[in-house]
Design a protein that fits this description.
about 375 residues; homodimer; about 40% helix; 2 domains; Dihydrodipicolinate Reductase, domain 2; Homoserine dehydrogenase (chains A, B); 7-stranded mixed sheet; Rossmann fold
């Protein structure tokens, strides 16, 4: 059995608990700790599974019945078990990510969809790689382990495939992909060769995506490319490059004059002034039988890693992408024509699913069966 | 450290040895046994790695310096080690596959690209599932394990993804794919909407594929759909269905009159008589802006599993497939719009790579690091 403590009980954390409890592994993974930013619940000295009412709102329950959150105490409780314990960080907090080295040193394994520890400071990334048994070249033994499949492409098997290439000695030439569900949706709708209707204005496409809840509250947080840049940084680092957000070339497609406006409403009101700019780019692409796609690229051998708006011909798999799917293409020595992985790269169900697959890997390694 | 014994030293077996020796795991996996159908080489009582000259032809070396092959003795040698041992079956032999239960019972893990054990007798499949720790619901402990990622889509992460869906409690609705590199090549070339030239006769497409070495020596062994049927059977069984080759609906696209002809040359000579038949099917599809693709389907809920020639619209990912790529689409509860995995599904390098990733899983589970 493996103890599980979850930091952050939002949509993903709640869905994960629900998936575990409904699965055949409900007696293998014991959920013994839950925290929100305010309150936390931990179980008893025997690490009995918390009794969880699946119908109730988990977050409200923890906030109503928990004690004040103290992450040091939370980690201490988990690390004192004789059984292996995993701490799952379901926040997006840099502050929480900074705690991973301490957690790993105390023997706790870490699983997380939080991109910060793997895309911010290179020193933090290296310290974590050095501490975790499954990423270190030198450490041997049964614990601790770190998995973060869901930091890129949510539940899609992107990072596990990338790590397999690296470990078997395959040589990665290039990783290219549409890493953002939001930007996938925007350009799949804005730039298409199959539709006979004239493209809608770009600002209208953004407006619709915002209304559907596909964008961040301020769509500039998608359009600035930083989310994609973090994912590219993670892929690049796992492929052996020392990529850094501060030096990675990232094309911010928010018009420059709108980047510093404070209010989201004002940004949305002024975006239509730039529709001609986007329409022109689109028309140029379509004229060449190409479409616009916002892509991230890890160029292992050529050193041209970055994030940008690019054109793809009709026959390219990126051109026929639909909905808000992610698509990632690896080009390697063994796979010169590429391996493509495509599917939903965001959402609570698929993110929780991806975390669950990481938990299964840890359980296999610590228990062997 | 993990001992490795390889049964069958063809292109895949030789490539695997080469990949291991070139990787950073060359001191983790000790190649201590090699067999061809005639001769075998095993190492000493200390399970020292065989000294292998990477420049030499491995198969010739074993045949020149080995003793007469005795698989019982070979397995016995491997199972007597204090370290964990894996036997890798790189043959396509049903007779060798029938030995897996004996091997598993003696504590040997098994890795193989041989489809027979997982697509022939349902009893054999169940016996193996029951014996292997990683597939059994009841067994606990550190050994034995069985992995066969490369039986479907070679090195593509198809079966590992499928197994993750099953284990996490995701519900698989449908698995649909182009599982044969040969049939992928044939129809990607014969049936296309992007080419402006008139389609070449089907028989000519087959002739070219045969000359390029893309087909079996007798192309009817591809066109009869049995290779695809075996892969569909494997996927279906892992998804929980009791599929059986004898009852699975399989569309044999070899014209009936040519199925019983003995000589391959005569078959190839007579195939052009049926070009009109294939041209008509293709024209009908293209008229509807669709293309022909030979697909396998596991329909978990609808019970319509089978193998057939089907039509796909231009916007479908199967329609824009190129070369001899495999493409597999999973539709599940968590991924209602599907997860797609695409890439080379045949060839020595990618098959050896896939076997290597299976070996890494075994090493992680038995050693924990």
């Amino acid at each position: 059995m493996v103890n599980v403590g979850i930091v952050g009980i939002g949509l993903v954390g709640s869905e994960l608990v629900s998936q575990i409890l409904k699965s055949s592994y409900k007696n293998v993974f014991k959920v013994v700790g839950l925290t929100t930013s305010q309150k936390m619940l931990v179980s008893d000295a025997q690490y009995t599974s918390l009794s969880i009412d699946q119908e109730a709102n988990l977050r409200s329950t923890v906030n109503a019945t928990g004690v004040q959150t103290d992450l040091a105490q939370f980690a201490d409780y988990l690390s004192k078990s004789n059984e292996h314990s995993v701490i799952i960080d379901c926040t997006a907090s840099e502050q929480v990510a900074n705690l991973y080295p301490t957690w790993l040193r105390s023997g706790l394994s870490v699983v997380t969809p939080n991109k910060k520890a793997f895309s911010s400071s290179l020193d933090l990334f290296k310290e974590i790689q050095d501490l975790a048994v499954n990423t270190s070249q030198t450490k041997k033994g049964r614990s601790p382990l770190i998995y973060h499949e869901t930091t890129v492409g949510a539940g899609l098997p992107v990072l596990s495939t990338l790590v397999d290439f690296v470990r078997t000695g395959d040589e990665i030439v290039k990783i290219e992909g549409i890493f953002s569900g939001t930007l996938s949706y925007l350009f799949n709708n804005f730039s298409t060769l199959t539709s006979t209707a004239a493209p809608k204005p770009f600002s209208e496409t953004v407006r619709v995506a915002k209304d559907l809840g596909y964008t961040e509250p301020d769509p500039r947080d998608d359009l600035n490319g930083m989310d994609v840049a973090r994912k590219v940084t993670i892929c690049g680092r796992l492929a052996g490059l020392e990529l850094d957000l501060s030096t990675l070339p990232v094309e911010n497609i928010v018009p420059e004059a709108l980047q510093s406006i404070e209010s989201t409403d004002e940004f949305m009101a002024k975006l239509p002034e730039y529709d001609d700019h986007f329409a022109k780019l689109n028309a140029e692409a379509l004229k060449e039988n190409q479409v616009l796609r916002y892509v991230g690229m890890v160029d292992v051998q050529g050193g041209q890693s970055g994030v940008k708006l690019a054109k793809y011909p009709a026959t390219h798999p990126f051109a026929s992408l639909q909905g808000s799917d992610n698509i990632i293409k690896f080009t390697t020595k063994y796979f010169p024509n590429g391996v493509i992985i495509q599917g939903a790269g965001a959402g609570a169900a698929v993110t929780a699913y991806g975390i669950f697959t990481d938990l299964l890997k840890i359980q296999e390694r610590v228990e062997g069966f």
